[in-house]
Amino acid sequence: MSEESFGQALRRHRRAAGLSQAQLAQELHLDQGNLSRYENDRQRPESATVDALDALLCAGGELRARATAAPPRPATRGIPAAGAVQPSDETDAMELARRVAASDISAETLAQLEMAFDDLATAYPASSPHDLLPRLREHLGYISQLIDAPRKTLAAHRHLLVLGGWFSLLAATVHIDLNQHAPATARLRTAAGLATHAEQDEIRAWCYETEAWRTLTGGDYRRAAELSQHAQSIAPSGSSAEIQATAQEGRAWARLGKADATYRTVERVHSLSAHLPKPVPAEHHYRYDPGKAAAYTATTLAWLGDPEGEQHARQVIDRFRPTNDFQPWPRRYATAHVDLALCAARNGRLDEAADAAQTAIESGQVAPSNWWRVREVVNHVTAGKLPTAGELQDSYRTMTSR
User: Which Pfam families does the UniProt record give (predicted)?
Assistant: First the structure.
């Protein structure tokens, strides 16, 4: 291999491919400024970027080899006298400091991963879990590659552990939505393990809260309350994890018919969330907002059989109603229709219950983990021998067979 540097070889291969710096940067979703620094040997790209450059430019492994080749070491000239200060002593010390700070993982890469997670957590309330899962897998695979990178700072390593924890947590939630419980368990364990290594109590608390929700959907309401309480005990004070875990406890008490405990937790959720600033974006799954408190109250009171549950459900429907035919229906809008249907069914208004349940089904936003809630309404309507019960049953079967 010639004495050509990595940057010189990169420039040569780019020009041979007939690409400008701007075109190559666009192809690989890179910043053109970074690409310029690569070509001028002022910055070395991370290993994943080197592989992408080598593949796109058909360099046959040359760029990878030049990126990993060690710089030539200067020849030594004899053995220095004992105790003599060598000219290289100072530069060796500076080189050691540089290598401690050197990393194949740029701050820009970590920032982009953070933005990618926020995008996915924001998309979650209105997206199909089938659409989110491939994107989560892709990012988790990339994070796994970066964790294995040989050169990274301790700060970068910890940052990657935190990001891996968040992505694994959201992936577990999506698996639960799809009733895929074996991978959900594995993802939750990974998230909890990464959070422990990174000393990130908020992610650990979310893991317990997520498991509480899964346990609740499985019908073990007492265990769900215990898991929610444990999540609250480790969550940072005032955090979204603490508030959501409190809300989950209230849902468990409602399913158990414990009215006093339910009302206490509803009051506590509103007290904890009353002074929270509205997050940006508002629909972020891991940032509590007033809309979540309203939707939580509607579901909790509907399960308890409190007549106010219907009023709260209608408020949520009005708040999240799509403004046009092209706007995706938020999951809270569909869930509020299920809450309204349950309230109407319990009050003997079976026609209204069937209509509300039908709207929820047609929204396409009822995740498999929530099918059981629609089934409760279908059972009420069927038991009441409503003429439209057959149509609702058909819609339910179609939804659950997808």
Answer: HTH_31
User: What are the tokens at 401?
Assistant: 């067979």
| Cα 84 off chain centre by | 57
Provide the token pair at 18. Answer: 């007939």
Domain ranges of the chain: 1-67, 289-402
Q: How far apart are CA 190 and CA 192, in angstroms?
A: 5
Torsion, Cα of 332, 333, 334, 339 (10° steps): 80
The residues, any chain, with a CB within 8 Å of residue 203's CB and separated by 6 or more, are 162, 165, 166, 169, 191, 192, 194, 195
All residues at 6 or more sequence positions from 29 whose CB lies less than 8 Å from its CB, including other chains = none
Q: Angle at CA 128, nearest 5°, toward 356 and 140?
A: 150
Closest of 392, 400, 376, 285 to residue 332, by C-alpha: 285
pTM for the structure as a whole: 0.71
8 A C-beta contact, residue 253 and residue 261: yes
Nearest to 173 by CA among 107, 244, 111, 238: 244
Q: What is the dihedral of CA 131, 137, 142, 148, to 10 degrees?
A: 170
Gap between the Cα atoms of 382 and 177, Å rounded: 26
Measuring CA to CA, which residue among 70, 124, 176, 148 is closest to residue 283?
Answer: 124
Q: How far is 266 from 269, CA to CA, in rounded Å?
A: 5
What gap in Å lies between CA 309 and CA 65, rounded to an integer? 65
Q: What does the block give as tokens for 154?
A: 């301790």
Which residues, in sequence order, are CB contacts of 375 under 8 Å at separation 6+?
396
Cβ count near 77 (within 10 Å): 6
pLDDT for 74 equals 41
Q: What is the DSSP string of 152-213?
A: --HHHHHHHHHHHHHHHHHHHHHHHHTT-HHHHHHHHHHHHHHHHHTT-HHHHHHHHHHHHH
Secondary structure letter of residue 44 according to DSSP: P
Higher pLDDT, 385 or 205: 205
| Listed residue (173, 50, 160, 46) closest to 113, CA to CA | 160
Residue 99: pLDDT over 60: no
Q: Considering only CA atoms, give the Rg of the chain.
A: 28
Report the CATH architecture of 289-402.
Alpha Horseshoe (1.25)
Please determine, for residue 85, whether its predicted confidence score (pLDDT) is greater than 60: no
Domain 1-67: CATH superfamily is lambda repressor-like DNA-binding domains (1.10.260.40)
